[in-house]
Amino acid sequence: QPELGKPTRNCYSLPGPDFTYGMYLHKRDGGVPEAIGHWDAVEAKPHVRVMPRDFVTMGRMAVGEGCTTAREFALYYKFKDLRCKDEGILRYGCKIPPGMTFGRPARPSTPFFDIMQHRYKELWMESQRARTVVQHVVKKKISDVRGNRTTFLRTHPLPVKEESFWHPQRFEKVWP
User: Fold this and answer.
1) Which Pfam family, an example, fits this chain (predicted)?
2) Residue 56: CB partners within 8 Å, gap ≥ 6?
3) Which of 83, 96, 102, 123 is least buried, going by the fewest C-beta atoms within 10 A?
4) Which domain holds residue 121?
């Protein structure tokens, strides 16, 4: 049972005060003079990039050779080990193709002569005039009253029917 108000004691005994926790690394530490006088240079290891296998091309070639079963395809893949071609995709550690630049291209400079002659104002005014003409035509089309059947019949009257005096023969000899 733990004592009242105290945590439970573990049963492990701790090492003495001269014990170093962790791993001790032997290195020379000569202070500032050694750091200034002797630079530790690290040489970069060459990065050999292994491209993944090109299964699409290998499968196409295997069909061309006459492979039909999965076993034949596996044997063909073992025999022909084709890798994808490096298309020069920039990745960390790869060489940059010559003539390649990064970033967005700069905007073409605004012609100063056009600014001095107020060319942009004239272009804007022409576009506003054209817009006003189009709006006027649209408004005129909307303002026209749409004719209904009555207005159509007023402007285009129906042809007058000619009265015929013809009667069937059974109505000719009728007693008065």
Assistant:
1) CFAP77
2) none
3) 102
4) 112-143
How many of the other CB atoms lie within 10 Å of CB of 109? 6
Spatial distance between the Cα atoms of 9 and 3, rounded to a whole number of angstroms? 9
Tell me whether residue 16 is in a domain. no
Judged against a pLDDT cut of 70, whether residue 25 lies above it is answered with no
CA 41 to chain centre: 44
Q: What's the gap between Cα 86 and its chain centre?
A: 24
Calculate mean pLDDT across residues 155-169.
79
Model pLDDT, residue 116: 87
The answer to the question of residue 99 being in a domain is no
Do residues 59 and 73 make contact, with C-beta atoms less than 8 angstroms apart?
yes
pTM of structure: 0.28
Is residue 60 one of the residues assigned to a domain? Answer: yes
Among 86, 106, 109, CA closest to 97 = 86
Lookup: tokens for 64: 């061309």
Q: What is the DSSP letter of 22?
A: S
Structural domain includes residue 35: no
